[in-house]
Write a structure and sequence with these properties.
- The chain is an alpha+beta fold.
- It contains eleven helices and 24 strands.
- Strands 1-24-23-22 form a four-stranded antiparallel sheet, with no helix packed on it. Strands 2-3-4-5 form a four-stranded antiparallel sheet, with no helix packed on it. A four-stranded antiparallel sheet has the order 6-7-8-9, with no helix packed on it.
- Strand 6 and strand 7 form a beta hairpin.
- The longest helix has 58 residues.
- The chain is flat, with a radius of gyration of 36 Å.
- The N and C termini lie far apart (97 Å).
């Protein structure tokens, strides 16, 4: 149960395996010169165009890619006389469905249509940032990063293309010691979340649209830490972060906070990254020093295999099982410890489901995120339980030794049994079999109580003796009542009627003042309850494992049932019959139920393979037929041409 040296080495090698793989990769797609943009500094992409600005330029360049070349569609903001005010060299831009927003070096923002039409020039001092470093927009709101004042100003469009200050994100409590931002540099709005690169605090802070703080990336979540994040971008799965060196991009999973990989000089010789944007399966990067737009393909397919992930999962699942056993012991001891067994078991179940559905990258990320917590709780719980049980054992041993003496007959046999039981408990503690120790110690406690009563019974009031024995019976009956319903439900192989009868006989012996008989039966009842608890735990575990196998098989069967192509329809009858038999045997014979479900799983896998093979042959046959018809048509046309020439 404790973390041994062997387990520690397994965990270390497991972590090294985790560090050696990733769930996403990037390959160079193309590079384009954008030297016509004066010091390019930001990029945004929609369905039609790539928008680029330069920090020494006062216009937005609208590009598109055609035939492998980057072509210029238009320059937005080029005609200064077309709008009120003059757009100075740009700092950042944002593009939504209809508009292009630019914040310039006068700390004012401009709004254009995508066709280049000028719409608004916002200059109000109430929301104008002192150092307007970045901009984002959503609906009627424009978000402006005020680096100088460590806040985000939010302008609201109260009338068409007219803005007022709505509010600011500033002295919002973000965690211990994190009362304010420290030099925020970039902002990104996606869905109902606002992401802020808080450079001085080495984090990316996340807010809801209603400005409620959610969390921060880069503070160790998923093992990730940032070094002055400058530029951020997002897609559905990943957060892309450019740090202070401006020569690499950290790719962080949004769900776990773990760093999948870093796009560094091994991917491309970056000069200075000043803009990043992710859309669909492409990552757009602005290299400011080399005046280059770089496109990377985003490969989201897993680079892991089942053979690589399953050992990781087995190690993780084993640790979860060990920890759950420790939590179960802590419950028996009534220790005040937060029991996380259900939470970790759900994580293990989810990881198993991801592996079964071949989402190996997601399973890897989930295990990578949860493993440190499981390890930490194991490292805390194991010595705690060991010390508690050692103290419990010590109390029982001292109590037994204090009764030491020369006893005759049944008393000597009982005393010897108690000492042997204590020796067995000590052996179990030293072998970390903690789940066996608590019931045994409780049984020894009952034996000691009865033994002490036997020693002091001579000359004691009969009614007092009855009360003592009834108290012992009541305590055991309470333990029995906690498991009786489950014993009837699960196939634990325990004779409930025998235990019920034994309790009745004990009650009769107490009423008949047969204390010797009551003593023997009470010790027998304690032993039977101990054995029943162990058998029940085993039965519950068997049912859970069988039910999990049935559930997995059902999921695969549903996948198989949904597959159909023209004349190819997978045969699911036998698999359904096997699963029906498994479900009917689940609570009576879980071993058989699991075996039937495993047979169904094998049958489903075979059917899936047959279906895929037949599908391939069908498609190949159709393709061959079309090809032959095409060739036959060409031949027929050729023959007709020859016949025509022959006749002429």
């Amino acid at each position: 149960m404790a973390i041994t040296m062997k387990n520690g080495m397994l965990i270390l090698s497991f972590l090294l395996m985790l560090c050696a793989v990733s769930a996403v990769d990037f390959t160079l797609n193309a590079t384009y010169s954008i030297s016509n943009v004066d010091s390019p500094t930001s990029v945004h992409v929609d369905d039609d165009y790539i928008y680029v600005i330069g920090d020494s330029d006062n216009r937005v360049y609208e590009f598109y890619i055609e035939d492998g070349s980057l072509r210029l569609e238009r320059k937005i903001g080029e005609d200064d006389s077309s709008y009120d005010g003059y757009m100075r060299p740009s700092r950042d831009l944002w593009v939504d469905d209809d508009n292009v927003y630019v914040i310039d070096k006068s700390d004012e923002f401009f709004k254009f249509g995508k066709d280049g039409e000028f719409k608004a020039h916002a200059t109000s001092e109430s929301y104008k940032p002192d150092t307007g470093i970045a901009i984002a927009a959503k609906g009627n709101y424009v978000y402006l990063v005020d680096k100088e004042n460590n806040r985000i100003n939010i302008a609201y469009e109260y009338s068409e293309n007219k803005y007022i200050l709505n509010e600011s994100i500033s002295y919002t409590y973000l965690g211990i010691g994190d009362a304010i931002f420290a030099e925020p540099r970039d902002i990104y709005v996606r869905g109902d979340k606002i992401y802020i690169a808080d450079t001085g605090k080495n984090r990316v802070a996340v807010f809801t649209a209603s400005l409620d703080y959610v969390m921060s990336y880069g503070r160790g979540k998923g093992g990730t830490r940032f070094d002055s994040p400058y530029i951020i971008a997002l897609d559905n799965e990943y957060l892309y972060v450019v740090e202070s060196g401006l020569k690499s991009i950290k790719v962080v999973r949004l769900d776990t906070g773990a760093t999948s990989l870093e796009i560094n000089q091994s991917y491309y010789e970056f000069g200075r990254i000043k803009g990043v944007f992710a859309k669909d399966d492409l990552l757009y990067v602005i290299d400011n020093r080399n005046d280059t737009l770089i496109l990377f393909n985003i490969d989201r397919t897993s680079r892991l295999t089942r053979a690589e992930v399953e050992p990781m999962f087995d190690s993780f699942n084993k640790s979860v099982s060990e920890l759950c056993n420790l939590y179960a012991v802590s419950d028996m001891l009534n220790l005040s410890v937060q029991n996380k067994c259900a939470q970790y078991s759900a994580d293990a179940h989810n990881a198993s489901d991801l592996i079964q559905s071949e989402n190996y990258d997601l399973a890897y990320d989930l295990i990578q995120e949860k493993l440190p917590s499981v390890e930490g709780d194991l490292a805390y719980m194991a010595p705690l339980i060991r010390d508690e049980l050692a103290d419990y054992y010590g109390e029982m041993y001292e109590r037994a030794v204090s009764l030491g003496g020369d006893y005759a007959g049944a008393l000597n046999i009982t005393y010897t049994e108690i000492l042997n039981d204590l020796e067995e408990v000590n052996y179990s503690i030293s072998n970390e079999e903690y789940d066996l120790v608590v019931p045994k110690l409780k049984e020894i406690s009952v034996k000691l109580d009865l033994f002490e009563q036997s020693l002091s019974s001579e000359g004691e009031n009969i009614e007092n003796l009855k009360d003592r024995y009834r108290s012992q019976l009541s305590s055991l009956a309470e333990e029995y009542s906690e498991i009786r319903n489950d014993l009837a439900l699960y196939p634990a192989g325990v004779n409930i009627s025998e235990i019920d009868l034994l309790m009745q006989e004990i009650e009769q012996d107490i009423n008949n003042e047969d204390f010797s008989g009551a003593y023997d039966k009470l010790t027998s009842l304690s032993a039977k309850l101990h054995a029943a608890e162990k058998k029940l735990d085993d039965a519950v575990q068997q049912v859970r494992e069988a039910n999990k196998t049935i559930s997995d098989a059902r999921q695969r069967l549903d996948e198989l049932s949904n597959k159909s192509l023209i004349v190819i329809h997978p045969n699911t009858t036998y698999s359904e019959s096997l699963l029906a038999d498994a479900e009917s045997n689940l609570m009576t014979n879980p071993s058989l139920a699991k075996s039937l479900a495993e047979q169904a799983m094998d049958e489903i896998a075979a059917e899936l393979k047959d279906y895929e093979d037949a599908k391939f042959l069908l498609i190949a046959g159709i393709a061959a037929s079309v090809f032959l018809l095409f060739i036959g048509g060409i031949i027929a046309i050729g023959v007709l041409i020859l016949l025509k020439k022959f006749k002429s």
